[in-house]
Fold this protein.
Amino acid sequence: MRQQMVLGDFIFGLSRGFAYSGLVRNSDGGWSDLTIIASKSQSRQNGQKLEKLTFTGTAMYALGMQRLDELRALQNARAPLPLVDGIGRNWGLWRINSVVETQSNVIDDGTALVMSWSLELEEFVNA
């Protein structure tokens, strides 16, 4: 079974009817500037911040609503989760910071026909 990414036991991919269409990876170098009155600012190393990943996508119908509920259940477990991509690379442990869902084309029983969603993960380091 092909997959884009696996977070814990949650599978992203077309085979599960829940693929992401965008991924933003934010890495910080740990630099800041110390302002000096009489000259240019000085660069200081404060230590690297944790990486963040933001997945975005569009889901359809009740299946999409169910998959988003599964992500929220993982979030509510409040535990770091392993992240592995589709080619087998282990990205380490990540925590779920937010799950954002925007429903549109909602029919009379409350089912959204289209859901735009985003998922923000942050690297989990406990060393």
Observations:
- The chain has one domain: 5-123.
- The mean pLDDT is 89.
- The chain is about 15% helix and 50% strand.
